[in-house]
Amino acid sequence: MDTTWELYEMFQAFLKAPSYHLALEAFLMVWVLWLIFHKSYKPERLELTEKEKEELIAEWKPEPLVPDSSKNHYALKPRVVSGALGKKITVNGTECLNMGTHNYLGLIDSPEIKEAAVKGLRKYGVGSCGPRGFYGTVDVHLDLEAQLAEFMGVEEAILYSYGFSCMPSAIPAYAKRGDVIFCDEGVSFPIQKGLSASRSQIVFFKHNNVEDLERLLLEQDDLDKKNPKKAKVTRRFLVIEGLYMNYGDVCPLIELLELKKRFKVRLFIDESCSFGVLGKNGRGVTEHFNIPVEDVDLISACLDYAIGSYGGFCCGSSYVVDHQRLSGLGYCFSASLPPLQSIVASVAIDVLKSKPELVEKLQKNARFAHKELQRLTKLLVCGDEVSPVKHLRLAADRAEAQQLLEQIVDHMQEEGVALTVARYIDEEEHLVPPPSIRLIVSAILDEEEISSVVSLLEKNSDTLL
Amino acid sequence: MMLGGTPGPTNPNSSWLSSKGMWLTYGVGILGLHLVLLSFPFLSVAWAWTLTNVVHNTGMFILLHIIKGTPWEPGDQGKSYFLTHWEQIDNGEQFTKTKKFLTVVPIVL
């Protein structure tokens, strides 16, 4: 009885309701039903007749799976080295003086390192077989990280298992879409890959040209003033190398630091070629220019070159470096450095610390080689005096520069000196440097050897060019 | 989130609203809000319904359409920095079940 009375009341309310209210309710119900049953937009599918399909199939020409490459491509006849790559290497059967590999301090031949490596091999085996997060962390990794941090005078270091992926993992961990990265044009390939992985806006400035960088920073500053809200969430980075692999020159760090402080950009330096090379004790460009290492936000380096191990590390303040333990893709997703190599790197750093005269000898050899190489008339020496990486370019521009340089290198190899032409993946590089012979000076060479190499170069370049 | 190597979607914002039982939980949430509003003695029933509607709509509007980005580190290199939650759901696909549900609820209220 009560329920029927309530239903009657409801029915009365329904009849008495104003018509706009009823119309609105009806409209809402229709809308709900439409939303529930509406299908998402699918573009019209074009149906082809059988004849059209056959035509299309007949017209189609497949692209070759492997594109044609020239018969004389250098990779088709690689020069094979047998034995260790120390001071002397046996290339294609000929024993040559090694001026092509990055054995700056000569630690490849060091007996202490070899002994430590064998002991480590017996204790730890050959690989770690796991990323750092999943049982791949061995005590030698932590020891090496602590040792590197203490050597460089920073709070923390993080170890990567592959030197090439050290900087490309570090840059995208901090720079995302919407950030701006100012980068030198002449940076090496791994850094370029890191820049494109970061998805940020990249602004290249001319190689080692501080005025160009200042102009670009001022432009960015103007843009920031016009849009301060966006500027507050944009991060700005400056990525440079300590010693440029492609050019052999040192960055103008003091001026760049001034710009960093003025425009508040974060400075990342890749010290792959300068770690163990520049500075009194081999600590890199910061020691070379006598600036406190805290001024640089992140230093990354490969252990492939001076240290003679492999892998890489990034170091800086704890606040900066710790972020990479979860965001550094090469750290989280690649297997960790084999413990054997960590021990090798550890012992190499010990050697470097106890024998700073190695670094001194290297710099002395580099300066001597630079002076000697000025004798060459047909080849131009590019690079700083103190850099062990020297690029020999043709003094006069020639069309087949690459072939001529390769001929010189072949002749030098026959006469017992192993050199290499600098190689680039032309399609992928941002700025392909001009062709050159990349000559590497190391600490284990004598002055007579350097002089004799230069004389041979003089002879070959004069006859061939 | 792909922190430290864990598997999962790069941006959990795209999929958490399609989880199992989300519709029921959402309904229970709105009911809870309504009961809280009903428990105030100075509000009549009509007011409680109106306020439920208004509070729910305003809240969802702010959360879904005004706030951009994610409260956690982006796994997709910052692509979701400039997207609202609505745009992030189902990675931008339109007219999915979740989006239809979220459109229908304010109308029903």
Automatic annotation (TrEMBL), chain A:
Keyword Transcription regulation tagged: no
Query: EC number(s)?
Result: 2.3.1.50
Q: Which principal EC class is assigned to this enzyme?
A: transferase
Task: State which pathway it belongs to.
Answer: Sphingolipid metabolism; Lipid metabolism; sphingolipid metabolism
Residues spanning the membrane: 20-37
What cofactors are annotated for this protein?
Answer: pyridoxal 5'-phosphate
Q: What keywords sit in the KW lines? A: Acyltransferase, Coiled coil, Lipid metabolism, Membrane, Pyridoxal phosphate, Sphingolipid metabolism, Transferase, Transmembrane, Transmembrane helix
Coiled-coil intervals, chain numbering = 359-414
Q: Where is the Aminotransferase class I/classII large domain?
A: 95-454
One Pfam family here? Aminotran_1_2
Which InterPro entries is this protein grouped with?
Aminotransferase_I/II_large, AON_synthase_class-II, PyrdxlP-dep_Trfase, PyrdxlP-dep_Trfase_major, PyrdxlP-dep_Trfase_small
**Protein family membership:** Belongs to the class-II pyridoxal-phosphate-dependent aminotransferase family.
Classification via PANTHER family: CLASS II AMINOTRANSFERASE/8-AMINO-7-OXONONANOATE SYNTHASE, SERINE PALMITOYLTRANSFERASE 1
- Its protein name is Serine palmitoyltransferase 1
Native source species: Limulus polyphemus
Automatic annotation (TrEMBL), chain B:
Q: What is this protein called?
A: ORM1-like protein 1
Query: What membrane topology is annotated for this entry?
Result: Multi-pass membrane protein
Q: Does the keyword Zinc apply?
A: no
What's in the keyword line of the UniProt record?
Membrane, Transmembrane, Transmembrane helix
The portions of this protein that span the membrane are: 21-40
- Please give the family membership noted in the entry: Belongs to the ORM family.
Q: Where in the cell is it found?
A: Membrane
Q: Does the keyword Cytoplasm apply?
A: no
| Principal localisation | membrane
Q: Which InterPro entries match?
A: ORMDL
